[in-house]
Amino acid sequence: MSRNPVAEALTQHDTLILDGALATELEARGCNLADALWSAKVLMENPELIYQVHYDYFAAGANVAITASYQATPQGFAARGLDEAQALELITQSVKLAQRARDDYRAASGSEAALLVAGSVGPYGAYLANGAEYRGDYALPEAEMKDFHRPRVKALLDAGVDLLACETLPSFAEAQALVSLLAEFPDSSAWFSFTLHDAQHISDGTPLSQVADLVNTAPQVVAMGINCVALESVTPALQALQALCAWPLLVYPNSGEQYDASSKTWHSAPSGCTLHDKFPEWQQAGARLIGGCCRTTPQDIAAIAACCQPQ
With the CA atoms of 298, 264, 268 and 230 taken in that order, what torsion angle do they form, in degrees rounded to the nearest 10? Predict the structure, then answer.
């Protein structure tokens, strides 16, 4: 029987605060991530910066760090001339960086709070590096999909993550393959987080009700939700999931900033449209794990963590 680190942590906290963006925060600190490997590129070039971002999120009040392995796969690293052993070592390093940040933060702060490291398992669409994680318009036979995910999943678990974060999933078939793959690692647990087509469907068009049926019957799944979606999509989707899902709900959406494609610049979120503004609404809709995805910062996480402090 797999342990449930989310349930254990929720005995200490009414809401678990997840970290915020990794890749866009690395960009804000000077990294050029215009690359098919995205944040995984920094594992090769400047791993200490990843450690610092993890540390800053813990210091901001995050209870969970998500590793820099979203786009880290043997297949992706092979395009850079790395063999499988080198690729798996980088995936292992993504875990060690987050664990070291957690341990150093605990030592510096004296905190005894439950702090988790979640191993990021990005979708096959992320490896394709063409935006497919927001469409789900790809198909592999289940055995091939499991073969794609297995080496990274094993490396993350062997490195000691508390659970897996199967995240930004756009495809029902891929979620089915991951549920099947988890059974090969019976002591593991995972959350499943999806991208959306709309408030009732994930990106490939599968109804949330069908997705929830899959997740509800997966014994190793410990939370379900949505990530890397627009802020305005969150509440209706959570309300739909609240009626469908047996597990704690999680959400970590994008910042709410507006992207101007013509000028290729970001602009501030409209009034009332930040993580902090929406936090009580999401709690009301059943979310127990809340953080941020693209363009969110340690400041955003500090703002929502402050909502959980005794007044």
Answer: -70
Q: Any residues with CB less than 8 A from the CB of 285 and at least 6 apart, and which?
A: 235, 238, 239, 242, 249
Token pair 């089915």: residue: 176
Cα–Cα distance for residue pair 106/282, rounded to 1 Å: 28
Q: Give pLDDT tens digits for 111-144.
A: 888 899 999 999 999 999 888 888 999 989 999 9
Q: Which helix (H) or strand (E) holds 288?
A: strand 287-290
Identify whether the C-beta of residue 96 lies closer than 8 Å to the C-beta of residue 51. Answer: no
Closest CA to 39 of 124, 129, 169: 129
72 closest CA partner among 148, 162, 176, 180: 148
Q: Kindly calculate the radius of gyration of the chain based on its CA atoms and give it in whole angstroms.
A: 18
Quickly tell me which residue has 């499943």 as its tokens: 192
When pLDDT is averaged across residues 14-23 and rounded to a whole number, the result is 95
Dihedrals phi, psi of 200, to nearest 5 degrees:
-115, -5
Give the separation between CA 78 and CA 303, rounded to whole angstroms. Answer: 40
Instruction: For residue range 291-304, list pLDDT tens digits in order.
Output: 999 999 999 999 99
